[in-house]
Amino acid sequence: GENVEQHPSTLSVQEGDSAVIKCTYSDSASNYFPWYKQELGKRPQLIIDIRSNVGEKKDQRIAVTLNKTAKHFSLHITETQPEDSAVYFCAASNAGNMLTFGGGTRLMVKP
Amino acid sequence: GAVVSQHPSWVICKSGTSVKIECRSLDFQATTMFWYRQFPKQSLMLMATSNEGSKATYEQGVEKDKFLINHASLTLSTLTVTSAHPEDSSFYICSARDRAGSSYEQYFGPGTRLTVT
């Protein structure tokens, strides 16, 4: 089955700096890679996703890059704000079927 | 659009009792729903895939006789935790895919926090 690894597990940045979270996956058949933001006790919120036919996608301060050959994808958050503080999860799936999640990254943005 | 609800949002039960959690897609039909469990400070782990009108597919290590899943309609799936024990205390989250949509996105419910005393 699919295995998704995520790094780092915790990340502390100063407000205004950039944050980068990286994930690797094992199943070459995976073709959908969403990123979620989860606040304590709440549901995961989709913040951006990318399909395997695209190498990069951007939405305002958030971008995701995908390297299919190396089987890794990354989340980039620019101009971080304190409200970006949360746990972020990457995930991978095949054709929208079951999602396999990474271990999560606790992002802390210090004012 | 694409709203998924769960009920109850939290529940406390005594060891040995059973608890039923409902997952509903409110404005779309979901052929497939997924049940996840999340322990504190951990990731979401898929427990089972629930398909409307057929038996659920359980992940390795998940006891199908303990976690009963029923997907009786295109908008409702239920998870029943039978003979609950304190180690079953966790955050249970469902998700659903819109069968009419072309997106791969899954829509998550708000989760149910189960505490077994």
The SSE string of chain A, one letter per element, is EEEEEEEEEEE
- What separation lies between the terminal Cα atoms of chain A? 41 Å
Approximate helicity band of chain B: under 10%
Question: In terms of structural class, how would the helical and strand content of chain B be classed?
Answer: mainly beta
Percent in strands of chain A: over 45%
Provide the succession of SSEs of chain B: EEEEEEEEEEE
Radius of gyration of chain A: 13 Å
Shape of chain A: globular
Average pLDDT figure of chain A: 95
Task: Tell me the layout of helices and strands.
The complex is a heterodimer of chains A (111) and B (117).
Chain A (H helix, E strand, L loop, with lengths): L3 E4 L2 E5 L4 E7 L6 E7 L6 E7 L4 E4 L2 E6 L4 E6 L8 E7 L7 E2 L3 E6 L1
Parallel strand pairs in A: 2-11
Antiparallel strand pairs in A: 1-3, 3-8, 4-5, 4-9, 6-7, 7-8, 9-10, 9-11
Chain B lengths: L3 E4 L2 E4 L5 E7 L6 E7 L6 E7 L5 E2 L8 E7 L2 E6 L8 E7 L10 E2 L3 E5 L1
Parallel strand pairs in B: 2-11
Antiparallel strand pairs in B: 1-3, 3-8, 4-5, 4-9, 5-6, 7-8, 9-10, 9-11
